[in-house]
Amino acid sequence: MSLVAYMADNAGRLLFLTQQHIELVLISVAISAVVGIGLALLTQSSPRLRHGLLSLTGTLLTIPSFALFALMIPLLGLGVAPTIAALAVYGVFPILRNTVTGIEGVDPAIVEAARGLGMSAGRRMRTVVLPLAWPVILNGIRTATIMLVATAAIGAVVRGPGLGELIFRGLERIGGANALEEVLSGVIGVMLVALVLDLLFIVIAKITALRGLNV
Amino acid sequence: MSERPTPSPDAMIFLDGVSKRYPGQEKAAVSELSMEIKRGEFVVLVGPSGCGKTTTLRMINRLVEPTQGRIFIDGKDVTHADVDRLRRGIGYVIQQIGLLPHLTIADNIALVPKMLGVKKSERRQRAEELLEMVGLDPATYAGRYPRQLSGGQQQRVGVARALAADPPVMLMDEPFGAVDPIARKKLQMEFLRLQGRIHKTIVMVTHDIDEALRLGDRIAIFDPGSRLAQFDTPLAILSNPADDFVRDFVGSGAPVRRLSLLKVSDVIASSASDAPGTLNAIPVDAGETVHRALELVLTARAEGIEVCVPGGGSRYLDLQALLTAAAQPTKVLS
Q1: Does residue B83 register a pLDDT over 90?
Q2: What is the ipTM metric for this complex?
Q3: Per-residue pLDDT for B272 more than 70?
Q4: Chain B, nearest residue to A123 by Cα
Q5: Domain containing residue B285: CATH number
Q6: Which residue spans traverse the membrane (chain A) (predicted)?
Q7: Who contacts B146 (Cβ-Cβ below 8 Å, separation ≥6)?
Q8: Residues of B at the A interface (Cβ-Cβ below 8 Å)?
Q9: How confident is the model at residue B242 (pLDDT cuts 50, 70, 90)?
Q10: Is there a domain that residue B56 lies in?
């Protein structure tokens, strides 16, 4: 049976798993974004704590994903919860790092002028710093998303949802009927999801681009 | 404890013994400085870098919090007032301008009115008025973004933004420092003309003594030890420098520079010569500067000037008498 025929036969299931995969990544990235941006804002007045957090979240990224998923089992059992938790942990670093870089990259003269005009700290952050840092922050979210699309496939080891199931099941019975086709459709699916989400971010970047910056 | 001084009624800004000491630094950035700036006065703080002039300026709107002393604005002690509200009532212009690049020129100008809750249509109208005031056509510039403007144009917008809520006080930190020399002189002159209309109380920092002499009603010269070496009118500083530092700082051209600040009316009283007759004199208004009078004499190849004095009649000064009179510093103090 050819790959194309396999995919056509299993279209319903493939689509379902793809959709699951996308949802899984988007939910995890959303959590990572809230945590990453939140940590960057909370550590605004304490650069040492901030750089400590950057090291810590960077270190978490070096834990092999297979191991991290497995480590989640005693805490959260099997299924969706441990998968999302592990993915969210991975996603924090690129978002935190880019948020910090973005905020630090805002021209101090602009912030100083805003302060001199009597703009409160909260308002300065909301209307000056975050909008100007946004393109860099968004890029961090994009990096995290692409990274998580690939990592999410490993989530199948804890019975996580998504396309990883195809890959792991296929590999377990490799040599069997349609095993290779199953693995390949999983891999292709992951690649397509990555591509589509990447395009989505390009569109978001275009829509949210600030006027006046590229003139 | 002795009675603490209070500002006089015509003082707009009053610094009472303010000091700024940064932790870990032995020497205070500003130490025990007291200064009174009158309503509508244009005061320039000048001195070498590190002399505390910028720190002093930034203590007025408390971008730098004084470690000691009190600050009064318009008779009110604002040393512990709400900073954001305080700053909204004080115009602030910096060298780097700091326009928000993602807002249009009109929105940049309307920032403070917006924070003060002014309605959108009124904000828009105010922004257009101010653009007009600083010499930029509202129809062309209101909708543009800062990066579409030249440095000089951006600086005008910076001034318009500082004026948006019509604050009585303006603080300017080297406002013309980043524009090229030709544009700078033009901006300075335009700004003087604007000030002639709006009569704000202005405190400006510069390291350029020429700019200080050109713009200030009074000049505060700080020495490298952060001491206020002299605080007086440009003419008085050129005529009677308080010490060697001020003399050095003002530079060697002081006697010639004085000529642009002295008025003919300042010198005619001290001149002995009022002999008319054979002198080939050209008429000069008493309000002209001595510099201008000399220019007129030299251009006309005349020998002296004829000045109408109040109460009828006129006085004559030959070139020598004019220069002798202009060289007498004592006259200025009367």
Answers
A1: yes
A2: 0.81
A3: no
A4: B115
A5: 3.90.1280
A6: 20-41, 79-96, 132-158, 183-205
A7: A212, B97, B99, B100, B101, B103, B105, B108, B154, B157
A8: 61, 63, 83-90, 92, 94, 96-104, 111-112, 115, 145-148, 158, 161-162, 171
A9: very high
A10: yes
